[in-house]
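Researcher: For the annotation table, I need C-alpha cells for DNA-3-methyladenine glycosylase I. Please keep the output clean. Sequence:
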Amino acid sequence: MTVEAGPAAEGPEGGPIVGEDGVARCPWAGGPGVMRDYHDTEWGNRVSGESAYLERLTLEAFQSGLSWSTILHKREAFREVFCGFDAEAVAAFGPDDEARLLQDARIVRNRAKVAAAVVNARATVALRGDGGLEAFVLGFAPAQPPAPRTVSELQTTSPESTALSKALKKHGFAFVGPTTMFALMEAIGVFDPHLVGCFRRGAN
C-alpha cells in the first residue's frame, strides 16, 4: 500500500497521531473508517498460505496509481472474481475470462493489471518447484528492519524490495516493481511497518 494522508493531522514532527479515541496511530489511519480498520487489524500482520500471498500481491498491483481505500472497498469483489485467489483456478483463465473481468464494474477495470493477475497466478504455480511464493517472498526479509519515527523517515523502496522485484520478474511475474514489492512486504508483515509510537508497533 502506498502511504496516504489520513484525515487527521500528523503528530509532533510528523510522528503518530492521537485520534479522537485517544489511540496513537500512523497518520494515514487517523480517522474512523475502512483505512483505520485495515491499519488496526491487518496491515503489518503476517499472513500464511499461497492464496493469501497471491491476494496481497494482486491487490498491491491493482492499487498502483489509485488509493488503497478504493481497493479495500472492492476487495470482496476481487476475491469473488479471482476465485478466492486460488492460483490454479486463476492460472486457467483465458481471453474470455479476462474480457469478462474487464466488464465487471465492481473491480478495477485495467487491461494490463487484469492480464498481470493471470500471469502472476501462472508464475505462482510454477514457483511451487522452488518452495512456493510464501517462502520466496520471506527470503527477502531485511536483516535490519526499518524503524521510522516520522513520516519523513518512511521508505517507499529498499534494497530488499528491489531484489525481490528483480527475482520475481525473472520467474515471470508482472507488476512487481520495487515500490509495489515494498508495499507488499509492509502489508504482510515481512517487517513491522508501523511508526515508532503507533500502538500497533511491535504488536505482531
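Researcher: And a one-line annotation?
Model: Confidence is low (pLDDT under 50) at residues 3-11.
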